[in-house]
Amino acid sequence: MHSRDYIRLEDEYGAHNYKPMDVVLTRGEGIWVWDVEGKKYMDCLSAYSAVNQGHCHPEILKAMMEQAQKLTLTSRAFRNDQLGLFYKEVCELTRSHKVLPMNSGAEAVETVIKAARKWGYEVKGVPKDQAEIIVCENNFHGRTITIVGFSTDEGSRRGFGPFTPGFKVIPFGDADALEQAVTPNTVGFLVEPIQGEAGVIIPPDGYLKKAREICTRHDIVLILDEIQTGLGRTGKLLAEEYDGIEADLTLVGKALSGGFYPVSAVLSNKAVLGVLRPGEHGSTFGGNPLACAIARKAVRVLFEENLIDNAQEQGGYFLDGLKKIESPHIKEIRGKGLMIGLELHPEAGGAHRFCKLLKEKGLLCKDTHENTIRFAPPLVIRREDVDWALERIEAVMKDTA
Ligand SMILES: *Cc1c(COP(=O)(O)O)cnc(C)c1O
User: How far is it between the farthest Cα atoms of the chain?
Assistant: First the structure.
Protein backbone atom coordinates (compact mmCIF):
# COMPACT_ATOMS: atom_id res chain seq x y z
CA MET A 1 0.00 0.00 0.00
CA HIS A 2 1.14 3.55 -0.75
CA SER A 3 0.68 6.72 1.27
CA ARG A 4 -2.32 7.75 -0.80
CA ASP A 5 -4.07 4.44 -0.05
CA TYR A 6 -3.72 4.92 3.72
CA ILE A 7 -4.88 8.50 3.38
CA ARG A 8 -7.93 7.38 1.40
CA LEU A 9 -8.84 4.89 4.16
CA GLU A 10 -8.60 7.57 6.82
CA ASP A 11 -10.71 9.95 4.77
CA GLU A 12 -13.37 7.36 4.06
CA TYR A 13 -13.75 5.68 7.44
CA GLY A 14 -12.44 8.14 10.02
CA ALA A 15 -13.98 11.19 11.65
CA HIS A 16 -12.45 14.32 10.17
CA ASN A 17 -11.61 16.05 13.43
CA TYR A 18 -7.97 16.44 12.34
CA LYS A 19 -6.35 17.71 9.15
CA PRO A 20 -2.95 16.02 9.29
CA MET A 21 -0.10 16.63 6.93
CA ASP A 22 -0.07 14.01 4.18
CA VAL A 23 2.79 11.91 5.51
CA VAL A 24 2.08 8.32 6.58
CA LEU A 25 4.64 7.22 9.15
CA THR A 26 5.48 3.63 9.87
CA ARG A 27 8.66 3.62 11.96
CA GLY A 28 10.51 5.83 14.44
CA GLU A 29 13.85 5.84 16.21
CA GLY A 30 15.19 8.70 18.32
CA ILE A 31 14.59 11.97 16.48
CA TRP A 32 13.90 10.22 13.16
CA VAL A 33 10.73 8.81 11.59
CA TRP A 34 10.18 7.02 8.27
CA ASP A 35 7.15 7.09 5.99
CA VAL A 36 5.72 4.07 4.19
CA GLU A 37 7.71 4.96 1.05
CA GLY A 38 10.90 4.78 3.12
CA LYS A 39 11.62 8.52 3.24
CA LYS A 40 13.33 9.64 6.45
CA TYR A 41 12.36 12.77 8.38
CA MET A 42 13.51 14.59 11.48
CA ASP A 43 10.55 14.85 13.85
CA CYS A 44 10.42 18.46 15.03
CA LEU A 45 7.09 18.10 16.84
CA SER A 46 7.72 15.05 19.05
CA ALA A 47 3.98 14.32 19.18
CA TYR A 48 3.44 17.66 20.92
CA SER A 49 6.29 16.82 23.35
CA ALA A 50 5.08 13.32 24.23
CA VAL A 51 8.22 11.71 22.82
CA ASN A 52 10.81 13.87 24.59
CA GLN A 53 12.88 10.72 25.16
CA GLY A 54 12.91 9.97 21.40
CA HIS A 55 10.83 7.50 19.39
CA CYS A 56 10.76 3.89 20.58
CA HIS A 57 13.31 4.48 23.32
CA PRO A 58 14.90 1.03 23.87
CA GLU A 59 14.93 1.19 27.69
CA ILE A 60 11.31 2.29 27.95
CA LEU A 61 10.35 -0.34 25.38
CA LYS A 62 12.06 -2.98 27.52
CA ALA A 63 10.24 -1.84 30.67
CA MET A 64 6.96 -1.94 28.75
CA MET A 65 7.54 -5.42 27.34
CA GLU A 66 8.56 -6.85 30.71
CA GLN A 67 5.56 -5.40 32.50
CA ALA A 68 3.14 -6.33 29.69
CA GLN A 69 4.10 -9.98 30.14
CA LYS A 70 3.44 -9.85 33.87
CA LEU A 71 0.39 -7.71 34.60
CA THR A 72 -1.28 -4.86 32.74
CA LEU A 73 -4.44 -3.85 34.55
CA THR A 74 -5.92 -4.49 37.96
CA SER A 75 -8.25 -1.50 38.23
CA ARG A 76 -7.95 0.42 41.46
CA ALA A 77 -10.28 -2.02 43.17
CA PHE A 78 -7.06 -3.89 43.95
CA ARG A 79 -3.50 -2.73 44.51
CA ASN A 80 -0.51 -3.43 42.26
CA ASP A 81 3.23 -3.53 42.86
CA GLN A 82 4.10 -0.67 40.47
CA LEU A 83 1.85 2.13 41.71
CA GLY A 84 3.55 2.81 45.04
CA LEU A 85 6.99 2.86 43.44
CA PHE A 86 5.74 5.21 40.72
CA TYR A 87 4.34 7.58 43.39
CA LYS A 88 7.52 7.57 45.41
CA GLU A 89 9.88 8.11 42.48
CA VAL A 90 7.79 10.87 40.91
CA CYS A 91 7.37 12.64 44.25
CA GLU A 92 11.08 12.54 45.00
CA LEU A 93 12.05 13.90 41.60
CA THR A 94 9.47 16.68 41.57
CA ARG A 95 9.49 17.51 45.29
CA SER A 96 5.78 16.71 45.46
CA HIS A 97 3.90 15.14 48.33
CA LYS A 98 1.01 13.45 46.61
CA VAL A 99 0.24 12.10 43.14
CA LEU A 100 -3.01 11.26 41.39
CA PRO A 101 -2.58 9.26 38.18
CA MET A 102 -4.87 9.57 35.16
CA ASN A 103 -4.42 8.81 31.45
CA SER A 104 -4.83 11.79 29.13
CA GLY A 105 -3.81 15.35 29.84
CA ALA A 106 -7.40 16.54 29.68
CA GLU A 107 -8.31 14.10 32.46
CA ALA A 108 -5.57 15.53 34.64
CA VAL A 109 -7.00 19.01 34.02
CA GLU A 110 -10.50 17.83 34.91
CA THR A 111 -9.05 16.29 38.07
CA VAL A 112 -7.49 19.54 39.28
CA ILE A 113 -10.67 21.44 38.59
CA LYS A 114 -12.57 19.02 40.81
CA ALA A 115 -9.88 19.05 43.49
CA ALA A 116 -9.50 22.84 43.53
CA ARG A 117 -13.26 23.35 43.79
CA LYS A 118 -13.63 20.85 46.60
CA TRP A 119 -10.67 22.37 48.41
CA GLY A 120 -12.38 25.76 48.01
CA TYR A 121 -15.55 24.56 49.70
CA GLU A 122 -14.03 22.39 52.40
CA VAL A 123 -10.88 24.28 53.32
CA LYS A 124 -11.24 27.87 52.14
CA GLY A 125 -14.95 28.06 53.01
CA VAL A 126 -16.34 29.28 49.69
CA PRO A 127 -20.19 29.14 49.64
CA LYS A 128 -21.69 26.12 47.85
CA ASP A 129 -21.42 26.18 44.04
CA GLN A 130 -19.77 29.62 44.00
CA ALA A 131 -16.16 28.59 43.34
CA GLU A 132 -14.32 30.50 40.62
CA ILE A 133 -11.21 29.43 38.74
CA ILE A 134 -9.17 32.00 36.82
CA VAL A 135 -7.68 30.99 33.45
CA CYS A 136 -5.84 32.83 30.67
CA GLU A 137 -6.73 33.97 27.17
CA ASN A 138 -5.46 31.70 24.40
CA ASN A 139 -5.07 28.83 26.86
CA PHE A 140 -4.92 25.23 25.73
CA HIS A 141 -5.80 22.64 28.36
CA GLY A 142 -7.54 19.92 26.33
CA ARG A 143 -10.80 19.06 24.63
CA THR A 144 -13.51 18.09 27.14
CA ILE A 145 -16.68 20.17 27.43
CA THR A 146 -15.57 21.88 30.64
CA ILE A 147 -12.13 22.66 29.24
CA VAL A 148 -13.27 24.00 25.86
CA GLY A 149 -15.88 25.99 27.77
CA PHE A 150 -13.12 28.26 29.11
CA SER A 151 -11.11 28.29 25.89
CA THR A 152 -11.02 31.57 23.98
CA ASP A 153 -10.54 29.82 20.64
CA GLU A 154 -13.84 30.01 18.77
CA GLY A 155 -13.13 26.92 16.70
CA SER A 156 -12.74 24.85 19.87
CA ARG A 157 -16.03 26.09 21.39
CA ARG A 158 -18.47 26.72 18.56
CA GLY A 159 -21.39 24.33 18.58
CA PHE A 160 -20.51 22.62 21.86
CA GLY A 161 -22.41 24.64 24.48
CA PRO A 162 -23.85 24.89 27.06
CA PHE A 163 -20.64 25.04 29.06
CA THR A 164 -19.61 24.58 32.68
CA PRO A 165 -19.80 27.86 34.63
CA GLY A 166 -17.28 29.09 37.19
CA PHE A 167 -14.35 30.26 35.05
CA LYS A 168 -12.98 33.76 34.55
CA VAL A 169 -10.61 34.59 31.69
CA ILE A 170 -7.78 37.14 32.00
CA PRO A 171 -4.90 38.12 29.67
CA PHE A 172 -1.84 35.82 29.80
CA GLY A 173 1.35 37.24 31.26
CA ASP A 174 -0.40 40.05 33.15
CA ALA A 175 0.00 39.71 36.92
CA ASP A 176 -2.03 42.87 37.62
CA ALA A 177 -4.97 41.36 35.74
CA LEU A 178 -4.74 38.33 38.02
CA GLU A 179 -4.73 40.51 41.13
CA GLN A 180 -7.81 42.38 39.89
CA ALA A 181 -9.72 39.24 38.93
CA VAL A 182 -9.49 37.70 42.40
CA THR A 183 -12.67 37.60 44.48
CA PRO A 184 -13.36 35.93 47.83
CA ASN A 185 -14.72 32.96 45.82
CA THR A 186 -11.56 32.43 43.76
CA VAL A 187 -10.21 28.95 44.44
CA GLY A 188 -7.62 28.46 41.71
CA PHE A 189 -5.49 30.01 38.97
CA LEU A 190 -4.81 27.61 36.09
CA VAL A 191 -2.01 28.61 33.70
CA GLU A 192 0.59 27.20 31.29
CA PRO A 193 4.14 28.41 32.08
CA ILE A 194 4.62 28.88 28.31
CA GLN A 195 1.58 28.77 26.05
CA GLY A 196 2.46 26.06 23.54
CA GLU A 197 -0.59 25.73 21.33
CA ALA A 198 -1.02 29.52 21.27
CA GLY A 199 2.32 29.70 19.42
CA VAL A 200 5.05 29.32 22.05
CA ILE A 201 4.09 32.47 23.96
CA ILE A 202 6.59 33.23 26.74
CA PRO A 203 5.30 35.47 29.54
CA PRO A 204 7.40 38.37 30.94
CA ASP A 205 10.22 37.39 33.31
CA GLY A 206 8.99 36.88 36.84
CA TYR A 207 5.34 36.36 35.84
CA LEU A 208 4.97 33.03 37.62
CA LYS A 209 6.78 34.38 40.66
CA LYS A 210 4.24 37.21 40.89
CA ALA A 211 1.38 34.78 40.30
CA ARG A 212 2.74 32.59 43.11
CA GLU A 213 2.85 35.57 45.45
CA ILE A 214 -0.70 36.67 44.56
CA CYS A 215 -2.08 33.14 44.96
CA THR A 216 -0.38 32.72 48.34
CA ARG A 217 -1.60 36.10 49.60
CA HIS A 218 -5.23 35.42 48.58
CA ASP A 219 -5.23 31.75 49.53
CA ILE A 220 -5.68 30.50 45.97
CA VAL A 221 -4.42 27.23 44.53
CA LEU A 222 -1.78 27.86 41.85
CA ILE A 223 -2.21 25.21 39.16
CA LEU A 224 0.49 24.90 36.51
CA ASP A 225 -0.34 22.93 33.39
CA GLU A 226 3.10 21.53 32.54
CA ILE A 227 1.73 18.82 30.27
CA GLN A 228 3.75 20.32 27.42
CA THR A 229 6.42 22.42 29.19
CA GLY A 230 7.25 19.74 31.76
CA LEU A 231 9.63 16.80 31.87
CA GLY A 232 12.65 18.50 30.37
CA ARG A 233 11.19 20.23 27.33
CA THR A 234 12.21 23.77 28.36
CA GLY A 235 15.60 22.75 29.76
CA LYS A 236 14.35 22.21 33.32
CA LEU A 237 12.44 19.25 34.70
CA LEU A 238 9.52 21.63 35.25
CA ALA A 239 9.32 25.13 33.75
CA GLU A 240 8.33 26.53 37.19
CA GLU A 241 12.01 26.18 38.17
CA TYR A 242 12.87 29.20 36.00
CA ASP A 243 10.87 31.34 38.44
CA GLY A 244 12.12 29.47 41.49
CA ILE A 245 8.60 28.63 42.60
CA GLU A 246 6.50 25.62 43.42
CA ALA A 247 2.91 25.33 42.25
CA ASP A 248 0.30 23.82 44.55
CA LEU A 249 -0.87 21.52 41.79
CA THR A 250 1.20 20.59 38.74
CA LEU A 251 -0.08 18.67 35.74
CA VAL A 252 2.15 16.38 33.75
CA GLY A 253 1.28 14.05 30.89
CA LYS A 254 2.60 13.53 27.39
CA ALA A 255 6.32 12.70 27.95
CA LEU A 256 5.45 11.02 31.27
CA SER A 257 5.27 7.82 29.19
CA GLY A 258 7.83 8.74 26.52
CA GLY A 259 5.04 8.30 23.99
CA PHE A 260 4.37 4.64 24.71
CA TYR A 261 1.06 4.91 26.49
CA PRO A 262 -1.32 7.61 27.73
CA VAL A 263 -0.18 8.49 31.26
CA SER A 264 -0.89 11.74 33.07
CA ALA A 265 -0.67 12.80 36.68
CA VAL A 266 -1.58 15.54 39.11
CA LEU A 267 1.31 16.39 41.42
CA SER A 268 0.39 18.13 44.63
CA ASN A 269 2.59 20.11 46.98
CA LYS A 270 -0.16 21.04 49.37
CA ALA A 271 -3.07 19.35 51.01
CA VAL A 272 -5.33 20.01 48.03
CA LEU A 273 -5.48 16.42 46.80
CA GLY A 274 -6.29 15.36 50.35
CA VAL A 275 -9.86 16.58 49.90
CA LEU A 276 -10.62 13.74 47.47
CA ARG A 277 -11.96 10.73 49.31
CA PRO A 278 -12.72 7.18 48.15
CA GLY A 279 -15.40 7.10 45.50
CA GLU A 280 -15.14 10.78 44.56
CA HIS A 281 -12.79 10.49 41.60
CA GLY A 282 -11.05 7.81 39.56
CA SER A 283 -10.38 6.07 36.29
CA THR A 284 -10.35 2.39 35.29
CA PHE A 285 -6.94 2.67 33.63
CA GLY A 286 -5.46 5.39 35.89
CA GLY A 287 -2.46 4.08 37.82
CA ASN A 288 -2.43 0.69 36.10
CA PRO A 289 0.79 -1.33 36.47
CA LEU A 290 1.73 -1.10 32.79
CA ALA A 291 1.38 2.70 32.81
CA CYS A 292 3.34 2.95 36.06
CA ALA A 293 6.20 0.73 34.85
CA ILE A 294 6.47 2.76 31.64
CA ALA A 295 6.29 6.12 33.42
CA ARG A 296 8.88 5.09 36.01
CA LYS A 297 11.34 4.29 33.25
CA ALA A 298 10.39 7.28 31.07
CA VAL A 299 11.12 9.71 33.92
CA ARG A 300 14.34 7.96 34.89
CA VAL A 301 15.62 8.12 31.31
CA LEU A 302 15.39 11.93 31.38
CA PHE A 303 17.98 11.97 34.18
CA GLU A 304 20.09 8.96 33.23
CA GLU A 305 20.66 10.31 29.74
CA ASN A 306 21.03 13.91 30.80
CA LEU A 307 18.20 14.94 28.50
CA ILE A 308 17.14 17.97 30.54
CA ASP A 309 20.56 19.60 30.29
CA ASN A 310 20.75 18.57 26.66
CA ALA A 311 17.45 20.36 25.98
CA GLN A 312 18.96 23.48 27.54
CA GLU A 313 22.16 23.22 25.52
CA GLN A 314 20.82 22.17 22.12
CA GLY A 315 17.83 24.48 22.55
CA GLY A 316 20.11 27.46 23.06
CA TYR A 317 22.20 26.45 20.07
CA PHE A 318 19.08 25.94 17.90
CA LEU A 319 17.64 29.31 18.95
CA ASP A 320 20.91 31.15 18.20
CA GLY A 321 21.15 29.42 14.83
CA LEU A 322 17.61 30.42 13.90
CA LYS A 323 18.26 34.01 14.93
CA LYS A 324 21.18 34.16 12.50
CA ILE A 325 18.95 33.30 9.54
CA GLU A 326 18.28 36.41 7.49
CA SER A 327 14.90 36.21 5.83
CA PRO A 328 12.28 38.87 5.13
CA HIS A 329 9.61 36.40 6.28
CA ILE A 330 10.76 36.06 9.89
CA LYS A 331 9.13 38.32 12.46
CA GLU A 332 10.38 36.79 15.71
CA ILE A 333 12.21 33.76 17.07
CA ARG A 334 11.53 32.80 20.68
CA GLY A 335 11.92 29.79 22.89
CA LYS A 336 13.13 28.11 26.04
CA GLY A 337 15.10 24.91 25.83
CA LEU A 338 13.78 22.87 22.94
CA MET A 339 10.40 24.59 22.86
CA ILE A 340 10.95 27.05 20.03
CA GLY A 341 8.62 29.18 17.93
CA LEU A 342 9.43 30.96 14.69
CA GLU A 343 6.83 33.60 13.96
CA LEU A 344 6.41 34.78 10.39
CA HIS A 345 5.17 38.15 9.22
CA PRO A 346 1.47 38.04 8.30
CA GLU A 347 2.44 38.81 4.67
CA ALA A 348 4.56 35.64 4.48
CA GLY A 349 1.50 33.63 3.45
CA GLY A 350 1.06 31.51 6.58
CA ALA A 351 3.20 28.98 8.40
CA HIS A 352 1.49 26.01 6.78
CA ARG A 353 3.11 26.45 3.37
CA PHE A 354 6.54 26.68 5.03
CA CYS A 355 5.86 23.47 6.94
CA LYS A 356 5.08 21.76 3.61
CA LEU A 357 8.38 23.00 2.15
CA LEU A 358 10.26 21.82 5.25
CA LYS A 359 8.64 18.41 4.86
CA GLU A 360 10.00 18.16 1.32
CA LYS A 361 13.46 18.77 2.80
CA GLY A 362 12.96 16.11 5.48
CA LEU A 363 11.75 18.08 8.52
CA LEU A 364 8.35 17.46 10.05
CA CYS A 365 7.07 20.61 11.74
CA LYS A 366 3.66 21.90 12.71
CA ASP A 367 2.20 25.34 12.21
CA THR A 368 0.38 26.82 15.18
CA HIS A 369 -1.92 29.81 15.06
CA GLU A 370 -1.49 30.75 11.38
CA ASN A 371 1.92 32.35 11.47
CA THR A 372 4.11 30.37 13.86
CA ILE A 373 6.21 27.28 13.17
CA ARG A 374 7.07 25.26 16.25
CA PHE A 375 10.39 23.45 16.55
CA ALA A 376 10.30 20.88 19.35
CA PRO A 377 12.41 17.84 18.46
CA PRO A 378 12.98 14.98 20.91
CA LEU A 379 15.44 15.93 23.65
CA VAL A 380 17.93 13.29 22.45
CA ILE A 381 18.90 15.58 19.54
CA ARG A 382 22.65 16.19 19.07
CA ARG A 383 24.46 19.28 17.86
CA GLU A 384 25.10 17.87 14.39
CA ASP A 385 21.39 17.12 14.05
CA VAL A 386 20.58 20.73 14.94
CA ASP A 387 23.04 21.84 12.26
CA TRP A 388 21.31 19.52 9.79
CA ALA A 389 17.94 21.09 10.66
CA LEU A 390 19.24 24.67 10.57
CA GLU A 391 20.70 24.17 7.11
CA ARG A 392 17.32 23.10 5.77
CA ILE A 393 15.32 25.73 7.63
CA GLU A 394 17.68 28.43 6.33
CA ALA A 395 17.29 27.19 2.76
CA VAL A 396 13.49 27.25 3.01
CA MET A 397 13.41 30.68 4.65
CA LYS A 398 15.81 32.20 2.11
CA ASP A 399 14.70 30.52 -1.11
CA THR A 400 10.97 30.99 -0.70
CA ALA A 401 9.49 34.07 -2.28
C1 LIG B 1 -1.66 18.38 25.17
C2 LIG B 1 -2.03 19.29 26.27
C3 LIG B 1 -3.15 19.04 27.08
C4 LIG B 1 -4.12 17.91 26.82
O5 LIG B 1 -3.54 16.65 26.83
P6 LIG B 1 -4.31 15.41 26.12
O7 LIG B 1 -3.48 14.23 26.49
O8 LIG B 1 -4.30 15.69 24.65
O9 LIG B 1 -5.67 15.37 26.67
C10 LIG B 1 -3.39 19.90 28.13
N11 LIG B 1 -2.59 20.95 28.37
C12 LIG B 1 -1.51 21.23 27.60
C13 LIG B 1 -0.66 22.40 27.94
C14 LIG B 1 -1.20 20.42 26.51
O15 LIG B 1 -0.16 20.72 25.74
Answer: 62
